[in-house]
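Notes to self, Molybdopterin synthase sulfur carrier subunit:
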Amino acid sequence: MLKILYFAGLRERLGQGSEELELPAGVRDVAALRDLLAARGGVWDCLLTLRNLRYAVNQQMARLDSPLCAGDEVAFFPPVTGG
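result:
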């Protein structure tokens, strides 16, 4: 299982803050997971279109080519600004 977390405006757009998903065969990295989730269509397309979307695997910043294993926690979040 993967634990997937969605933060900030992304959580609001998707209507959920987290989910658990069995690691599908063939999904070996963050990019493949992002593409799988975006294939749901509708609001999920934002995973492909949001500029500067960030990723973390097991609470460490990650890149699209970062590998995934069953039991990982994957977070998606937009850049956050404040002032």
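- The chain has a mean pLDDT of 94.
- The two ends are 37 Å apart (CA to CA).
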